[in-house]
Amino acid sequence: MVMLEKILEGIQVFEFKRGEKVCVQGEEGDAFFVVQQGSLSVSIKKGKLSFSKQVATLGPGDCFGEMALLRQAPRNATVECSTLSRIFVLPALHFQTVLRQNPEFSAQINDLSAARQFELDYRYG
């Protein structure tokens, strides 16, 4: 219960319109996101002259944004709303605090990030 309270004190809910970008490839990672409602498209672009390629679709319960925060690196994908979407947003500072205070959550997020990086490297790389 204490961990949930820690998470909730830093979380905000935002509504995004269809076509609106939640995060853009190459930008600094400043938050962790959990989809409450809606459908979102994840796309990557390999090189300046290439076209974006959709690599995933996200929906309620899915999360994203952890890779940039864990690696302190630019976002490696663009996430755009396919429908009107409501998204929980946890700013980076609160995300790092939650990771430090909850080893189980930290392990799950690190495993998710590693799996996503593997897929990016070997399936789309």
Q: How would you characterize the overall build of this protein?
A:
This protein has helices spanning 2-10, 66-71, 92-101, 103-123, and strands spanning 12-16, 21-23, 31-37, 40-44, 53-58, 63-64, 78-81, 85-91. With 125 residues, the protein is of the alpha+beta class. The protein has one domain (7-123): Jelly Rolls (Sandwich), CATH 2.60.120.10.
Search tags:
125 residues; alpha+beta; Jelly Rolls; 4-stranded antiparallel beta sheet; 37% helix; 31% strand; globular
Rg from alpha-carbon coordinates: 14 Å
Secondary-structure element series:
HEEEEEEHEEHH
Taking all residues together, what is the mean pLDDT?
A: 90
What fold name stands as the CATH topology? Jelly Rolls
Question: How can the largest sheet be summarized?
Answer: 4 strands, antiparallel
Query: What helical percentage do the residues reach?
Result: 25-40%
Q: How large is the count of helical segments?
A: 4
Enumerate the strands of the largest sheet in spatial order, edge to edge or round the barrel: 1-8-3-6
- Whole-Å distance between the termini? 41 Å
Q: What's the total number of strands?
A: 8
Indicate the proportion of strand residues.
25-35%
- Structural class computed from helices and strand pairing: alpha+beta
Task: Explain the layout of strands and helices.
Elements: H1 2-10, E1 12-16, E2 21-23, E3 31-37, E4 40-44, E5 53-58, E6 63-64, H2 66-71, E7 78-81, E8 85-91, H3 92-101, H4 103-123
Antiparallel strand pairs: 1-8, 2-7, 3-6, 3-8, 4-5, 4-7
